[in-house]
Amino acid sequence: MRITAVETHVCNARMRNWVFVRVVTDEPGLYGWGEATLEWHTRAVVGAVQDLAELVVGEDPTRIEHLWQVMFRQHFWHGNDIVRGTALSGIDIALWDILGKVHGVPCHKLWGGPVRDHVRLYGHLGGGKLEDFYESDEPARFGELAVAMVEQGFTAFKSMAVPPTMPLEGLAPIRHAEACVAAMRDAVGEGVDIMVDCHARPSPRMGHLFAAALEPLGLYWLEEPCWPERADDIAAIQRAVTTPIATGERLVGAHAFAELLAKGACSVVQPDITHCGGLTEARRIAALAEVYRVALAPHNPQGPVSTAASIELGLATPSYVICEAVTSDVPWRTDVAGQSHPVEQAGMLARASGRPGLGVEIDLDSVAEHPFAPELPRRVFYSDGSVGDW
Q1: What is the pTM of this model?
Q2: What are phi and psi for residue 154, nearest 5 degrees?
Q3: Cβ 268 vs Cβ 296: under 8 Å
Q4: DSSP string, 303-337
Q5: Rounded CA gap, 2 and 158, in Å?
Q6: What is the pLDDT along the chain (390 residues), one digit of tens a residue?
Q7: Please, what is the angle between helix 82-103 and helix 278-292, to 10°?
Q8: Are 247 and 224 in contact (CB under 8 A)?
Q9: Does the active-site annotation cover 118?
Q10: 199, 208, 275, 370: the active-site residue
């Protein structure tokens, strides 16, 4: 059996273009689906997939570790930048889908079998709809959206309650974040887990202030309280509060997570399976997290293949605690791919499907209805006109 082609199929989903990767073999009807979605870098990733395809076409698709090493190490430049890492990830995910289909089992059974009965899903406030998740700024609206998430069955959800903030500001952004989170907590009570994503908007000092102000509100975690390049500062914030700090979505490769873990920088690591090096590298990162007894919660605001891969990883990984799941970013999401795993609405619990590989199939006719278009811009400037972080 040999790989005959590596294809990319781009589907515009408003804020991001889903980049689906299909690895085709010479066995009739045998192929695998991966995902290499990277906002505002779609054309670069498609080109990088084409570059890597030259290394794997003609090879045995079941030699996944060997092909991962080839893609990461060959042609001099290692695959630890975000574009090549994303391209590598998309192909790697598809190879695992193929291997599961070859053996007629779900991917999690290739990794030692299930370690849990279900994977809990958490949602984005507003289901991931751009206007609700990224642009809500009134405390009352945060409360309304929080109630809607619970009504949908979620027992956990994430919000963007921390505004873009200059390196040092007064109390206004702190009090605003407090009011938004308090509104959500008052609306849903203490039986629902609330995450707040800072999106690495604050400076290290402002990150400290946000973490301290929000600590009494009992967050499930506070995410990216400052730039991910500042591992020492993230560690200092984690030491200063009891709130679990989560980070890692912008990191590529296990070596970057080794530094975070060695410094005690966080309580939750968030590798993005479509960026960090695919399922192969995500499993190495998960093993590191297990050594340090740190929770694993992969970053996953992307398309349906990424979600299927995350659930499969969660079913087989002891350190995995919860799966990010976007449900309402576009109204036709389920037209592109049906549900890969059965989900119990009460609690939003995903269970094993029994289907081989990742259990997901992409409808290329539906993809063709939403061709590539430039992603919606997300530009941030502070009140004085200087550049901020989105």
Answers
A1: 0.97
A2: -70, 140
A3: yes
A4: -HHHHHHHHHHHHH-TTB--EE----SSTTHHHHB
A5: 42
A6: 999 999 999 999 988 999 999 999 999 999 999 999 999 999 999 999 999 999 999 999 999 999 999 999 998 899 999 999 999 999 999 999 999 999 999 999 999 999 999 999 999 998 877 776 777 789 999 999 999 999 999 999 999 999 999 999 999 999 999 999 999 999 999 999 999 999 999 999 999 999 999 999 999 999 999 999 899 999 999 999 999 999 999 999 999 999 999 999 999 999 999 999 999 999 999 999 999 999 999 999 999 999 999 999 999 999 999 999 999 899 999 999 988 999 999 999 999 999 999 999 999 999 999 999 999 888 999 999 999 998
A7: 100
A8: yes
A9: no
A10: 199
Catalytic residue among 208, 275, 299, 370: 299
Is residue 267 within 8 Å of 294, Cβ to Cβ? Answer: yes
What is d(CA 376, CA 364) in angstroms, rounded to the nearest whole number? 23
**E strand or H helix at 268, and its extent?**
strand 268-269
Domains of the chain: 3-104 (3.30.390.10), 110-368 (3.20.20.120)
Rg (C-alpha) for the chain, rounded Å, is 20
299 is a catalytic site residue: yes
Distance CA 317, CA 296 (A): 9
